[in-house]
Every structure is written in structure tokens, then in C-alpha cells.
Design a protein that fits this description.
alpha+beta; Chloramphenicol Acetyltransferase; seven-stranded mixed sheet
Length: 489
């Protein structure tokens, strides 16, 4: 008598502690997903996109798995009913008469997607192809943070692209721009260590944490230094109560500015003897300052903090997905009216962080939270999220044109999720020698993010003007900036 073969059980893998922490950070007010926008010069068909996703994105088996969470722990479980049609969709924007209204409609759609949690019964990702946008198409991507951190997910998404319109059929699955620009670029993606020249000892400890991510091991290896850093992090005062903090809702608002010329940003950095990152973060602080003052906020002496990710993994391991980054607190001097002084203060904060253990402490705490009861996780998340007003990322991307499914990519942006009670996300992305500034905000806190992003360009123009007018025999300082500003009035 023939025997009936038992059905194969779906493959199940335990989830790492840090990935578990990010899975459990999900809140109705802050969905834990990384949202991306890719704008294409030519129209793309849904079938072309599905072909690219099937061949390249699904080459990572993790994206065929869904996240399951039980009291015994979280795990990755193969989705027996995986349906590509559910994950890759076509959408159309409502009628629009001009370029400005078209952009507004697209920003509303991205805002809606950034506000909508992913379906937990399926693998936690979706691609939305927007037809007939900007003379071509646009792609909105949503991937849950539990799959990977920014450095890994940016690599994954850019592995869908090519450096030529028609790549050779025999070309291997690869991240083309990384092969062109080398490992130095990888280090910059989704992290600030390239710009702040983070100390070698700190990165070495980060690699040790990557291999053995337990809080006990971290404390044993770092001893007093980590203990002091942990106490310092816990002792940080809460960020001041401004209009950018408050009770969160369930709706996000997304907006992005017209791009800047990367060479001009570099020129300002040279004039101020600081990094590109310093210049951009100072301009972001200036944009927030202008917005808040116009709405009646008293910013005398006010400094806000933003949490910024720092990569802690060996570069060659980023393609393995997972979350392997720490966080540091960057000060945004919104109370400073002198634009060059703002740059100096951001640069000084970056310099102070270069030998800090803050990032390692944050990674260890995330690992510990992944093992903690849900109630403990909630308390700890709220405790640390009160110490910052925003999440800020600067992603230096490839400085050459890329193609997705044969369509030239014109612009790209990414936003990481906010955590706990944080309701503001600042995103800076460079691609093909242009720099984009984007903002994602809780609709209750900033219902009009366009009013913030429209100030980013003018704030940078102030720095560019001062750099061009300054004395190039020495770096431009705040006193010189004040004198030039007075002279120009």
C-alpha cells in the first residue's frame, strides 16, 4: 500500500536579538519600515519590475519569509503562500494639471504609504510602481526594519540597478555601483563614520559586537569606558519641549526639496574646513530653526538632538542583511542664528563623537532589549526616544547614473522610521552629483513639511554665499560670517 508523503514544513529560522528589538518597536504611530522613492526618466511596465524583483530582490531568501513573534521568541518563517502580485503593485496618481500639483499628489501618496503598516501575515515588504509620473515612472519601496539596517537595504535596492541601460545577459547578480566605487563607498552608506572619521578603536569594538552581540560581553570587554558611556547616555536630559515634540498621531507627511549641486556643497565644506555631512546637517538645522521661529517658537539657547546611525559591521558582511548598527546623538543648534556658527557646532559635535562608545552602547542595548519582556522594551524605548527630537540619516549614494529595468533613475530618496515618541525624520541622499533633502514628520507635529524643506535650499545658499565671499587663505569662521552678513545688508 502506497504511503502518503507528509507535507514539508515551512523552513523556520530564529531571529537575531537586535532584529527582534526592531520588530517589536512597531507602533501604530511609528511603523518600523524604511521607505524609499526612486524616480525614473522613462515609463516602466509592471511586468518589467516584477522580472527585476524576481531575479534580483528574491535572490535574497529572507524576503520570501515572514516574521513571526511568540513569547518564546521571534523567528523567520517561510511563506508557503507567497504571492508576488501582492508585493509588487501598480498605482496611478489622481488627476493633476501641472508639475507642482503632480509632485504634491505624489508626496501625498508616499505619505499614505509611510503611514500604512505592512501586513504581518506576509513578508514585510511591498513595491508600488507609480505610472506616468514626471514623464516616466516612480517606484515607492517599503521594507520593514527587522529585515536589515539602512546600509544593507540600500545595497539590496541598488543591486536591482545597473550602470548601463542594457547590461550584458551574463552579468552576475551584483550591486553595480559598489563595484564601480569600491568598498570606501559602502562604509558611507546609511552611516556617518566616513564623515566623522570615527576612531579605529570604536570600529574594532563594533566588529567584536557584531561577532558576539550580547550586553554582558560588551560590558566585559569594554569595562569602565562602556559603563561610563552607558551612564552618560542614561543621564542625558530629555530634549526640550518644542513644537516638534508632542503626542503622535497615525498619519505621516513626507516632502522633499529640489536637489543641490554636490560640488557646491563640497566647496562650502572646504571653505569651512569641515565635512560635507557637517554642512548638510547645519543647513537642516537652519531650515528647522526658520520654520519654528516663523510659527512663534522661542529658540534662544535651544539645541535639539537627532539620533544618527553608525555602521558596526564588517563591510563585506552587509549583504547578509540583519541590523548591525549603533546610534549616536548629534546636536542640532537650532538656537544659533549665525549659519557658520551652526556649522562649527555640528562639526565639533561630530569630532567629539569620533572616539565615543555611544554607538556600541546603543547596539548592546538593542541586543538586550531583544531578550527583554515587551513591557520592559516599551519603557526603555520611551526613555531613550525622549532624549532626541529627530532621526537623521545621510546616505551618500553612487555618483553616476543608474538604470532600473532599462529605465534611467533620475532621483532617489530614503527615509528610516522614527522610534518611540520621536516624530521627525531628516533624510539627506546624494546621487549622481546632486544632494536631496527630505523630511518625514508626524502630521500632528508638522502638518506642512513643505514649509520646512523649502527652507533647506536658502539655508545652504547662505553658507555658499559666505564661502564665496570669505578669505580662502584660512577657513571661514563665525566671526567672519557675521561681518560679511552685516556688510551685505
Amino acid at each position: 500500500m502506497a504511503t502518503t508523503k507528509a507535507p514539508r514544513k515551512p523552513r523556520k529560522e530564529p531571529m537575531s536579538r537586535v532584529d527582534t528589538a526592531w520588530l517589536r518597536m512597531e507602533r501604530p504611530t511609528n511603523p518600523m519600515m524604511i521607505t524609499g522613492v526612486l524616480m525614473l526618466d522613462e515609463p516602466m511596465t509592471l511586468e518589467t519590475l516584477k522580472k527585476v524583483v524576481r531575479k534580483r530582490f528574491l535572490a535574497y531568501p529572507r524576503f520570501l519569509q515572514k516574521a513571526v513573534d511568540t513569547p518564546a521568541g521571534a523567528a523567520w518563517l517561510e511563506d508557503e503562500h507567497f504571492d508576488l502580485d501582492w508585493h509588487v503593485r501598480m498605482t496611478a496618481l489622481p488627476g493633476r494639471s501641472d508639475k507642482k500639483s503632480e509632485k504634491k499628489a505624489f508626496e501625498r501618496f508616499v505619505s499614505q504609504m509611510a503611514s500604512t503598516p505592512l501586513d504581518k501575515s506576509k513578508p514585510l515588504w511591498q513595491f508600488h510602481l507609480v505610472e506616468k509620473y514626471g514623464g516616466g515612472s516612480a517606484l515607492v519601496t517599503r521594507i520593514h526594519h527587522s529585515y536589515a539596517d539602512g546600509i544593507a537595504l540600500v545595497q539590496v535596492l541598488l543591486s536591482l540597478t545597473d550602470t548601463t541601460r542594457k547590461p550584458e545577459k551574463s552579468s552576475e547578480l551584483r550591486t553595480a555601483w559598489l563595484k564601480q566605487d569600491g568598498a570606501e563607498v559602502v562604509r558611507r552608506v546609511g552611516a556617518i563614520d566616513r564623515y566623522m572619521k570615527i576612531g579605529g578603536k570604536v570600529l574594532d569594538k563594533g566588529m567584536e559586537m557584531y561577532r558576539d552581540p550580547t550586553l554582558a560581553t560588551m560590558l566585559a570587554k569594554e569595562g569602565g569606558e562602556i559603563g561610563r558611556e552607558l551612564l552618560a547616555a542614561l543621564a542625558l536630559s530629555d530634549d526640550p519641549p518644542t513644537m516638534l515634540r508632542g503626542k503622535l498621531g497615525v498619519s505621516k507627511r513626507v516632502a522633499w526639496a529640489e536637489p543641490l549641486d554636490l560640488d557646491e556643497v563640497k566647496a562650502v565644506g572646504r571653505a569651512c574646513d569641515c565635512t560635507v555631512n557637517d554642512v548638510l546637517m547645519a543647513a537642516a538645522a537652519g531650515a528647522l530653526r526658520s520654520y519654528m521661529i516663523e510659527r512663534g517658537e522661542d529658540l534662544e539657547g535651544v539645541t535639539l538632538r537627532a539620533t544618527v546611525p553608525v555602521n558596526l559591521r564588517p563591510l563585506e558582511h552587509a549583504k547578509k542583511l540583519g541590523n548591525h548598527f549603533g546610534l549616536v546623538f548629534l546636536e542640532l543648534p537650532v538656537g544659533e542664528d549665525n549659519p557658520i556658527r551652526r556649522v562649527e557646532r555640528v562639526a565639533q559635535c561630530m569630532n567629539d563623537l569620533k572616539n565615543s562608545r555611544q554607538a556600541i552602547v546603543a547596539f548592546g542595548l538593542l541586543a538586550a532589549l531583544g531578550m527583554a519582556p515587551t513591557a520592559v522594551q516599551g519603557v526603555a524605548l520611551e526613555l531613550f526616544s525622549r532624549k532626541a527630537t529627530a532621526v537623521a540619516t545621510n546616505v551618500p549614494g553612487p555618483q553616476q547614473p543608474l538604470y532600473l529595468g532599462g529605465c534611467k533613475m533620475r532621483e532617489m530618496m530614503f527615509w528610516v522610521p522614527q522610534t518611540g515618541s520621536i516624530g521627525i525624520g531628516i533624510s539627506i541622499m546624494s546621487y549622481n552629483n546632486r544632494v536631496h533633502f527630505g523630511l518625514i514628520a508626524d502630521a500632528k507635529l508638522v502638518p506642512d513639511p513643505d514649509a520646512v524643506i523649502q527652507r533647506f535650499g536658502p539655508e545652504f545658499e547662505k553658507l555658499l554665499y559666505l564661502a564665496l565671499m570669505g578669505n580662502w587663505d584660512r577657513s571661514l569662521d563665525s566671526e567672519a560670517a557675521a561681518a560679511l552678513t552685516v556688510a551685505s545688508n
